[in-house]
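tool_call predict_complex ligand=heme C
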Amino acid sequence: MQLIARTILLLGVGSGAALFSAVLATAGGPGDLTPRVPPERLQEAQSLHNPFTPSADLVAKGKKIYEGKAYCSACHGLEGAGGSSGGRISPPGSEPPTNFADAAWQAARTDGELFWILKHGSHGTDMAPYLPLYISEEDAWAVVIYLRTFGGT
Ligand code: HEC
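tool_result ok
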């Protein structure tokens, strides 16, 4: 009887650990659409609206910043699908950054959430805060507009 109980307990712990590692394997991975803004800040982030109307000039400006001074492309890749190193440097073996060219990802995020991440970074990842030290608010919105061009959207 005791042996059975112990076996059941072990099985329970085992499947819990398997589930946990499955969650770890996908969290932050390219196919993971869970918001990157922490839940308690999500409403605030989603209420931010791009004050600029997308235009060819702003796309060009965003591209210049993405590939130039902010060097987003080093981690996110020129096509937005992640660089050769996968971007994430720590912890070793972590999943590469989000694939910006994924239509499902594009649909899942508001402009405000992207801006919020640029301003505050993504805690626990290599995504650093960029505002106001590296880029201005206007630069950041131009980059958001540029991010929207990945995946042909
Ligand atoms: C040092 C590498 C690195 C650099 C440079 C970098 N990022 Fe990131 N970025 C990451 C990682 C790692 C994540 C976390 C991946 C995730 O959340 O799936 C991330 C997350 C993001 C997210 C949130 C993704 C989501 O799913 O909502 C956005 C938006 C983003 N980065 C945009 C940028 C932009 C724009 C720049 C340039 C201003 C930039 N990143 C520079 C590594 C980097």
